[in-house]
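User: Here's a protein and a ligand (zinc ion). What would the complex look like?
Assistant: Let me lay out the input and then the predicted complex.
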Amino acid sequence: MQQILHNIKSFFSSFPLNKEFLYIENYIRLEDGIIDPIDFCKLSFDYYCVEEDSIKTFELDLPEYSKNHFGNYAEQSIPEEIIDENGILNYNLHLYGICKSCKKKQAEFLISVRSDKKFPTDRQRLYKVIDEETSVPIDVFENKQINVYLTKIAVFPEPKIKIEKYIQKYFDRETNNWYYKGIKSYNEGFGIGSYAYFRRIIEKELIKIFQEISLLPDADSKLNKLISEYKEKNQISTLYNDSFHLLPKSLQLLGENPLKLLYSLTSQGLHNLTEENCLENSDKIHKILDFVIKKIYEEKSELSSIREIIKSIKK
Ligand SMILES: [Zn+2]
């Protein structure tokens, strides 16, 4: 049983509101704490800097009042006020995000820090047990495995949604609008809403994307035939199952057909899915769709730049 500390960067950069983020599995109280308010200071993550209009590295800091307060605790003791009446680690924390490049303080987070079981507040109450795998003595509290979760309650100002230029250019106004709303709903933790927007996009765009790919110079000419067959017989499964090796090499990089993945992510009925499932599906669709559109864009722009070169040589 080893403590697993999950990377906190994604939590501050892009994790939705109101969704639990598993921060620490099998919590073990070590010298450096990890869960005290002061432990969040100086942690870094990527975030949009308004001043510089681009993604920069940010650092977390506590407001002065809580830094002064929590900074005075001895290293090994846990502040009493972060443990609730049931012995659970349970507190809300106000944090600032500071851009490391322009030094401006520009994002505020309110997060909740919570354990799923009673929490050890004193080193003497820990049991020493021997880890079976590593033979190293470790601390366990009441022999229970404790997990620690973080939840984003509020972010101020609302994070800016930055949509890549190649996406904006690729889709029409309506799809861009759904795309924006899909991401916005995701950020706010509205899974069902976000998933519904991304589904609409896939339903409307997927066959068009297929056609666009079939026109790329690196695509196999049989892909076009497959699309025509689909249009005649309306057998969607053949199109997704037989097209992988006909795609340009750059779209085969995942080892799976990304278009098939997009299709399968949107073919489940909404009524079977929880808010949580929907958030996960949205995130997957968003990332795979971005990947596909980016590859199409690269294939096209690479080709056009080579054409320019050929033209200039011929002159
Ligand atoms: Zn900045």
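Summary: The longest helix spans residues 275-314.
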